[in-house]
Design a protein that fits this description.
The complex is a heterodimer of chains A (about 70) and B (about 160). With about 70 residues, chain A is of the alpha+beta class. Chain A has one domain (about 1-65). Helices cover about 30% and strands about 25% of the residues of chain A. Chain A has helices at about 10-15, 45-50, 60-65; strands at about 1-5, 5-10, 25-30, 35-40, 55-60. Chain B has one domain (about 5-150): 5'-nuclease (Rossmann fold, 3-Layer(aba) Sandwich), CATH 3.40.50. Chain B is built from seven helices and eight strands; from the N terminus they run E-H-E-H-E-H-H-E-H-H-E-H-E-E-E. In chain B, the strands form two sheets. Chain B has a five-stranded parallel sheet with strand order 4-3-1-5-6. Chain B has a two-stranded antiparallel ribbon with strand order 7-8. Classes of the chains: A alpha+beta (about 70), B alpha/beta (about 160). At the A-B interface, strand 3, helix 2, strand 5 and helix 3 of A face helix 1, strand 2, helix 2, helix 3 and helix 4 of B. Strand 5 (about 55-60) of chain A pairs parallel with strand 2 (about 15-20) of chain B.
Chain lengths: ~70, ~160
């Protein structure tokens, strides 16, 4: 792998190993000290669609209440 | 090579529920993007304690996430992507002892301790997880930085 002028160059064998396409759009996500490169979105898990399109909306007060351990 | 990670309940919560207020929407976007990338990364396996499975599903229920979605998540937890660890009485005893010492509620310990020796990294936005009890067992990373989330407290941004 090479980084030149802010661009990352990945050899073909690494791209293949990571299931990244030769052409097209990839997404880079920075998490802590890791940069995750994401290619095509697989649909192997049922929950992925629900995470991609979350429907629940609450106020922050309601979210805090939902996350609290209640004293009963 | 597969690696096991723990994703804390508050990240699941904010990833799957949108706050109405604009000022907190950034937390949802960060959590959602992080969870999605983690779920889709074939090299990452996620581990949860059986206590955390119940906690995540209960928080989503209280947030009105529909039953079908919650059951899909429960079914996915049985797939190869996930590893669910049972909590033993020994683990509960250790959790209670350390919780008493730190003043951090026992539930955070019940999320993490059954995964000692299993996970190499803990992703949490709760600063309780910055305590030595947790970072002694795995590296702790806040993927929602600079946001800090804690039960019962409004989310806040750190200054640094």
């Amino acid at each position: 792998m090479k980084i030149i002028a802010g661009k990352i160059y990945l050899p073909k064998d690494l791209r293949l190993k990571a299931n990244l396409p030769d052409n097209g759009v990839c997404e880079a996500i920075l998490v802590g000290d890791e940069i995750k490169l994401r290619g095509e979105i697989p649909k192997t898990l049922n929950i992925i669609e629900a995470v991609r399109n979350p429907r629940a909306e609450l106020s922050i007060e309601e979210m805090m209440k939902a996350g609290e351990v209640e004293d009963v | 090579m597969s690696s096991f990670i723990l994703v804390d309940t508050n990240i699941w919560h904010f990833a799957m529920v949108k706050p109405i207020e604009e000022e907190f929407l950034e937390i949802h976007k960060r959590a959602n993007s992080f969870l999605l990338s983690t779920l889709m990364d074939e090299n990452i396996r996620m581990a949860l304690s059986s206590y955390q499975v119940a906690e995540v599903l209960e928080v989503l229920r209280r947030s009105y996430v529909d039953f079908d979605t919650r059951m899909k998540l429960l079914a996915d937890l049985k797939t190869r992507k996930f590893y669910v660890a049972e909590g033993s009485f020994h683990t509960v005893e250790e959790a209670i002892r350390d919780s008493f010492e730190s003043g951090i509620h026992v539930y955070d310990y019940l999320v993490a301790y059954p995964l000692k020796g299993v996970v190499t990294r803990i992703y949490s936005a709760d600063d309780h997880f910055q305590h030595a009890h947790f970072f002694k067992m795995a590296e702790v990373v806040n993927p929602l930085f600079p946001w800090i989330l804690r039960e019962g407290v409004k989310p806040r941004k750190t200054q640094r």
